[in-house]
Task: structure prediction
Amino acid sequence: MVYAASTRTLLDRPRKTAWNSTLTIGALGLSLVGDLQDSIHDMTNSTKPLGWGNQISDGGELTAKYTLSQQKLISSASSQIELKSTLQASVGYITEALWEYKNRLALT
Result:
């Protein structure tokens, strides 16, 4: 896939929250990707890949994805301990939802 993405991050310091919004637009199945891979295999004297005829969207297809996530600092009791929670959802060429909980402990 060849793509371009644009991301915007908004910080809400009083609520200790960060919002990330990403729009990705791309193309699947372009022959130029296969040509590039073939060239790399030629330069490295590797076996040529044989699966390009079986690719989804063979010949090219536009695709897009939008992702929105919220990261919240739950606790930072000291400069060495941090607890965070993330909620994320994506729609488009992949649709998914995520909840994540992170702990970070710095040992000095």
Notes: DSSP finds one helix and five strands in the chain. The chain has a mean pLDDT of 91.
